[in-house]
Write a structure and sequence with these properties.
The chain has one domain. Helix 1 runs antiparallel to helix 2. The chain is built from 2 helices and no strands. With 51 residues, it is mainly alpha-helical. 71% of the residues lie in helices and 0% in strands. The longest helix is centred in the middle third of the chain and has 22 residues.
């Protein structure tokens, strides 16, 4: 999810498409939150790991 967010940020920046930029930021933040929760050992949504 983090990698997809970074890709959308880059594509949105290069192509000057604001919606891709916004979606990229949202995916990056959500991916970082899931990464932090998973790293602390807390189950998120009933899953211990998100692949």
């Amino acid at each position: 999810m983090i990698i997809l967010g970074i890709i959308l940020l880059v594509v949105g920046f290069v192509a000057k498409i604001a919606i891709l930029w916004t979606i990229g930021i949202i995916l990056l933040v959500v991916g970082a939150i899931l990464l932090l929760l998973g790293a602390t050992g807390r189950a998120v949504g009933g899953r211990k790991h998100w692949y």
